[in-house]
Amino acid sequence: MRVALLVPAAGSGSRLGYTEPKALVDVVGVSLLRRTLERLAAAFTFVETVVLVPDEALSACEAALADAPAGLGLCVVRVGGATRQQSVHEGLTALVGDADIVCVHDGARPLVPAATLREVIAVASRCGAATAASRPIDSVRIEEGERTRALDRARLWLVETPQAFRRELLERAHATAEAEHIHGTDDASLVEALGQRIELVESAGPNFKVTVEADLLAVREMLRRESCPTRR
């Protein structure tokens, strides 16, 4: 099974309150993007990796990944699009190998558990499409006009990455979305629009996305705990 990796990381980081792109924000001495890639490379061996970054950060990201972990295979950095969907599309066109499966993972999810990544890829290889997801902890309500209504959280999932697909499916989904002007919140929604069932893999641990300052502080603290576990 040959698996390629796409890592969209072209976000501006404006909600973090930083002037530099999110991909380059420091996370315990290493950039956020580097943290994510090291976690991925330690969990799985990819045949090639395409990282999508902001235009203004291209040179800095290339320098940061000059000695990319071996598990990423052939690793290249490309300028992403204005949206996440456009970035993934750019990543697909940049693939040069003959991967059977394409795995997509947000550059801002540096804590992805190895077991989650491996299981998503394994399920996608069997079934065609899979995504990591987790159950909501809080109660959930939906707006209905001027009122709200409680939803049964036991039936709800919060969709995350990694997501993995048979390459032909993902390429066809993006081509269809471009032709029909479909805008999805993630790649699974684009693939689902083709009629493909999306299999869910429950995350084996924390896998949240760094979006605001509180997320970044939490990631830093968790990584410090990993590197200096409490002795019993």
3D architecture notes:
The chain has 232 residues and is of the alpha/beta class. It contains seven helices and eleven strands. The protein has one domain (3-227): Spore Coat Polysaccharide Biosynthesis Protein SpsA, Chain A, CATH 3.90.550. The radius of gyration is 18 Å and the shape is globular.
Write the H/E string, N to C.
Answer: EEEHEHEHEHEEEEHHEH
> Could you report the average pLDDT, rounded to the nearest whole number?
93
For the largest beta-sheet, the strand count, sense and barrel status come to: 7 strands, mixed
Proportion of helical residues: 25-40%
Number of domains: 1
pLDDT below 50 for ≥5 consecutive residues: which ranges? none
CATH class category label: Alpha Beta
- By helix and strand content, what is the structural category? alpha/beta
Proportion in β-strands:
15-25%
Please, how many helices? 7
**Shape assignment:** globular
Strand ordering within the main sheet? 5-4-1-6-10-7-11
Quick recap of the structure?
Helix 1 (32-43) crosses helix 4.
List descriptors.
7-stranded mixed beta sheet; two-stranded antiparallel sheet; 232 residues; single chain; Spore Coat Polysaccharide Biosynthesis Protein SpsA, Chain A; alpha/beta
List the SSEs and their pairings:
Elements: E1 3-8, E2 26-27, E3 30-31, H1 32-43, E4 48-53, H2 58-64, E5 74-79, H3 84-94, E6 101-104, H4 114-127, E7 129-134, E8 140-144, E9 147-151, E10 158-166, H5 167-180, H6 187-192, E11 199-202, H7 213-227
Parallel strand pairs: 1-4, 1-6, 4-5, 7-11
Antiparallel strand pairs: 2-3, 6-10, 7-10, 8-9
